[in-house]
């Protein structure tokens, strides 16, 4: 690879059908050195993650943990061909997401009853459905809203496209239909196969986004309640923009809040809620700036990198982690400086659709 994007075929970095590079991409001395040091940082983060005894137990206990070996390769895939500010923005985004997921896994394994933890260790945790927004937890500063589905299903598929094949087979072997959405089917398969971490004081499930999700929730809620974890069903209206359903939708949220308060003894804190809301607004404002730059001939925050980062920040983080709002501002500063210098990602490139 030369310094300019498009100077060589990116597919040549791979050997045959393997998913790892046969050698690091050459991006010029400065960018190659930067990318390599950030790659080493990811390797060090994974090594630090495995220093925790419970994490080691979790790695060998759960089949889906094998997919996390692909974290460095996944980030390499999304940074291919990038140079200068685009490369640095990409690495900043993915490194923070990878670090946050590592913290999520560490928390889960430290509280997992399958790994010998006491139920008391997770009495401050409310399990949240992967398909629902976690904003409701912005009102509980002393509680954590965690999703085991995010760690065991969603992230795994981002790392390996075929990560859930085994669990889909498990679901169909139990007689469940094979033509539903594979995401809730995979989650149900993980539960049936005994690969669901058990932790949390209570759980809130949501009926979004489809009938397949309702099916999966039924399987999961039975397993949770069998282990002494009560479950609340938050029934959101699918036609949520219609005026006639607004009061009903608000009451469903109130019911979920009341359930959490009853189960945990905590009270909803509006001050903390709006503190998190301000950080959500920061992310929305900064992302709007990135999209405005993308209207020009010099886009800076691009591709799947903006999608995966913003989806993580918007749904899973929801203003509860200040580091994401701080990074949003940093990315805007980096992107604006690159735009002022008219730094272009692609030069003289013809895109054939």
Please give a structural write-up.
By secondary structure, the protein is mainly alpha-helical. The protein has 12 helices and 4 strands. A 4-stranded parallel sheet has the order 2-1-3-4, sandwiched between helices. Helix 8 links the parallel strand 3 (202-206) and strand 4 (231-234). The longest helix is centred in the first third of the chain and has 28 residues, at 84-111.
Question: What is the topology?
Answer:
Layout: H1 29-49, H2 53-61, H3 71-79, H4 84-111, E1 125-128, E2 144-146, H5 148-159, H6 165-173, H7 182-192, E3 202-206, H8 211-226, E4 231-234, H9 246-264, H10 270-294, H11 303-317, H12 322-340
Parallel strand pairs: 1-2, 1-3, 3-4
Helix pairs in contact: 1-4, 2-4, 3-4, 4-11, 4-12, 5-7, 6-7, 7-8, 10-12
Radius of gyration: 22 Å
Helix content range of the residues, please? Answer: 40-55%
Strand-and-helix sequence, N→C?
HHHHEEHHHEHEHHHH
Regions with little confidence, pLDDT below 50 for 5+ residues: 348-353
Major sheet details: 4 strands, parallel
